[in-house]
Design goal:
Length: about 350
C-alpha cells in the first residue's frame, strides 16, 4: 500500500540536548534514562499548548504547531520547568535543551515530519544557548506584541542549506512575568457542521472512562511492587499510558474511530493535574503490537496502563476497557459498554447521578 503523504505549511520546533555525548560518557544508562525523561515531560507540555510531538530522534525532538505563539509558550514554559527539575537531580547528568522555532513547508507521513521547515528549525536551534530559544524572523513578525516576551535581534545569519540569510531572534520571558496559559478555542459564531452520532457517543464514553479510571488511581497507592526493570524513575504521582484501542469490527475504517477515541482519552486525562500521562506519540508506538503490559511499564516508566477495544455493528457499539497495574499485570478496573448510539448518553447520566 502506498504511504500517505501530507504536505503543509507548519510551525516547527526542534529541540536538542546540549552536550549529550558528554552526558553519555559520564554514565550511559543514567544519561539515557534522563534524556528520555526530559523528552517525555516536554511532550506533555507540547500537547498542553496544542502541539504535536512528531518524533524523537536520539537526542533531539521535533514538534509541530499551528501557531507560533503556542510554540514559543511551550518552549519557554518547559525551559523554566526543566531548570527547576534539574535543580532537584543529583550529580552532573542534568539534560538541558536548546530550541529553534521556524515556519516552512513540511511533509508528514506515519507521524514523521521532514522538509525545509524541519531543517530551518534545526539550524535555528544550533544558534540558541543553554536553555535558550531562537526563532525565525518571519515567526517573530507573527507573534502578538501583547505577549510578555523580550527579543534579542541576532541579525541576519547564513544558515547551512539556505541560500538567503535568515533573520534570527532570541526570545526570553520578560522579568517578573509568567508564561501565558494555553488559550481555549473561541466559541463558533456560526452553526457548526453536524458531527456523526458515533462521535458524540465516543465523547460520552470517554468522559466516563476518564472519571472512573482517574478516580481509581487516586484511591490506590502508586508505589509499585518492583521497579528494577523500569527504564527510568517513576514520576512522583500516578502515571498512566493509554494504549491504542483495538478495532474488532469487520470494517477496517473503524480503526479511525478507535484512534480518535484513544486520542481524546489521552487529551482528557492529560488535563488532570495530579496524573502523569504518556504523550500520544509514545503510546501509539504500540499500535497493532502484541505486548505484555509489563513491557510497556518498563519502556515508558509508568505503573498503570489503560487498554481496550471497540466493536461496531450497524447502530450498535461495544467498548471494552480495562485499567491494569502494569508492574504486576493485575486488573484494577474493567468495564463494558454495549449500547445503541442514541443510548450511550444514558451511561453518563447514570454515572453523574450516582
Amino acid at each position: 500500500m502506498a504511504e500517505r503523504l501530507s504536505r503543509e505549511l507548519a510551525v516547527i520546533l526542534h529541540a536538542d540536548v546540549i552536550g549529550s555525548t558528554r552526558l553519555v560518557q559520564q554514565n550511559e544508562t543514567l544519561a539515557h534514562q534522563r534524556v528520555q525523561d526530559v523528552f517525555r515531560r516536554f511532550s506533555g507540555t507540547i500537547q498542553t499548548y496544542a502541539g504535536t510531538a512528531r518524533e524523537i530522534r536520539g537526542d533531539a525532538l521535533v514538534a509541530e504547531f499551528e501557531k507560533v505563539s503556542d510554540a514559543v509558550c511551550a518552549a519557554l514554559a518547559f525551559q523554566f520547568e526543566n531548570a527547576e527539575f534539574n535543580a532537584t537531580l543529583d550529580g552532573d547528568i542534568k539534560p538541558e535543551l536548546r530550541m529553534g522555532i521556524g515556519m516552512g513547508e513540511v511533509v508528514i507521513a506515519d507521524n514523521t515530519v521532514t522538509g525545509v521547515g524541519v531543517v530551518l528549525a534545526q539550524r535555528l536551534e544550533q544558534l540558541a544557548g543553554h536553555g535558550g530559544v531562537c526563532i525565525q524572523g518571519a515567526a517573530y513578525e507573527t507573534l502578538p506584541k501583547r505577549l510578555p516576551f523580550d527579543y534579542e535581534a541576532l541579525g541576519d545569519r547564513e544558515l547551512k542549506g539556505f541560500e538567503e540569510p535568515v533573520r534570527v531572534y532570541a526570545v526570553t520571558l520578560r522579568p517578573g512575568e509568567t508564561i501565558p496559559l494555553p488559550e481555549r478555542p473561541a466559541a463558533p459564531v456560526s452553526r457548526p457542521r453536524e458531527r456523526p452520532r458515533w462521535r458524540w457517543a465516543a465523547v460520552s464514553v470517554i468522559a466516563l472512562l476518564c472519571l472512573a479510571g482517574a478516580g481509581l488511581l487516586w484511591l490506590r497507592p502508586w508505589a509499585p511492587a518492583t521497579i528494577e526493570q523500569i527504564a527510568f524513575p517513576l514520576p512522583d504521582k500516578p502515571s498512566i499510558a493509554v494504549l491504542p484501542f483495538a478495532n474488532l469490527s469487520d470494517d477496517p475504517q473503524q480503526a479511525f474511530f478507535a484512534d480518535g477515541m484513544t486520542d481524546d482519552l489521552i487529551t482528557d486525562l492529560s488535563k488532570l493535574s495530579g496524573l502523569f500521562v504518556i504523550a500520544r506519540n509514545s503510546s501509539f508506538a504500540y499500535k497493532e503490537r502484541s505486548v505484555d503490559v509489563r513491557q510497556v511499564s518498563e519502556e515508558l516508566g509508568v505503573q498503570y496502563v489503560l487498554e481496550g477495544s471497540i466493536r461496531r455493528v450497524g447502530d450498535r457499539i461495544r467498548i471494552n476497557a480495562q485499567l491494569i497495574d502494569a508492574t504486576t499485570g493485575g486488573n484494577l478496573w474493567t468495564e463494558r459498554y454495549d449500547k445503541q448510539f442514541d443510548d450511550v448518553f444514558s451511561i453518563s447520566r447514570r454515572h453523574y447521578a450516582a
